[in-house]
Design brief:
This protein is α+β, with helices and mostly antiparallel strands. It has helices spanning 47-50, 82-85, 88-104, 112-127, 132-147, 186-198, 204-222, 227-236; strands at 2-16, 20-27, 31-37, 56-63, 70-79, 168-170, 174-176, 182-183. Helix 3 (88-104) runs antiparallel to helix 4. The relative contact order is 0.12.
Length: 237
């Protein structure tokens, strides 16, 4: 058993026993890391606030090979994203990005680029002005690029034609000329191309459509729907 120190973003928490919880982190060093936080649910414990979902923390834990849940020794807060947590719409969109990373990250495998992408995404949603859907669409595209599962936006995936020829969006492949899951309006097609070329969020008029395409594409790649997108559709349409 060895003591290790790293940063992490809190992905989820599950109650364990009467006073403890198993906390899952995305870390740069070990990818998905689950730790038992003993006593964090006691009334006088400061860990509950530190280990709130979305928080970026510094943690010390005891690592033992072959054990699925490690023991947390201590944790300190690095960033709580207060601007994010004050805005329900942005927080719910951030939950989609968290869920996307949680489903993709592998246990005990370095994930430095994914960790950096998620941290930057939470910072953008917490501080950048503009439409939450537009930012989340752009940030989801960045994360999908890191994962190697990004939609094809530089050409039509079915024919190889330039992106200007795209009339459809395929949830399996991206831009398509002949057929797909969603017929594109000229504005939507342009918004996708601009987002791919500039890495900037789409205009507000196309934000909802582009977000929906990124969410459906991500769901197809992960082979299941996202709970967070169902909540978003129920709450914000």
């Amino acid at each position: 058993m060895s003591q290790e120190k790293t940063e992490g973003i809190v992905l989820r928490k599950v109650d364990f026993g009467d006073t403890s919880a198993v906390v899952t982190f995305l870390t740069p060093d070990r990818g998905r890391l689950a730790c038992l936080a003993k006593g964090m649910r006691r009334k006088n414990s400061g860990l509950a606030a530190v280990l709130d979902t979305f928080n970026r923390v510094e943690l010390v834990y005891y690592w033992k090979d072959g054990r699925g849940v490690q023991n947390l020794a201590e944790a300190s807060l690095l960033e709580a994203w207060p601007g994010l947590k004050r805005n329900v719409e942005r927080l719910t969109h951030a939950a989609f990005l968290l869920e996307l990373c949680q489903r993709a990250v592998v246990e005990n495998a370095p994930a430095e680029e994914l960790y950096g992408a998620l941290s930057a995404s939470l910072a953008a949603l917490a501080t950048e002005p503009g439409d939450a859907r537009a930012w989340t669409a752009c940030l989801a595209h960045r994360i999908l690029c890191v994962l190697g599962h990004a939609p094809e936006l530089g050409a039509c995936a079915d024919t190889g034609a330039p992106p200007e020829a795209a009339r459809w969006f395929s949830h399996e492949h991206g831009l398509a000329e002949k057929a797909g899951d969603r017929r594109l309006t000229p504005g939507e097609a342009l918004a996708l191309r601009v987002m791919a070329d500039t890495d900037a969020p789409p205009e507000r008029a196309e934000a909802g459509a582009v977000f929906e395409m990124m969410a459906c594409f991500a769901a197809r790649q992960r082979e299941s729907d996202f709970r967070s997108t169902r909540v978003l559709r129920q709450m914000f349409g």
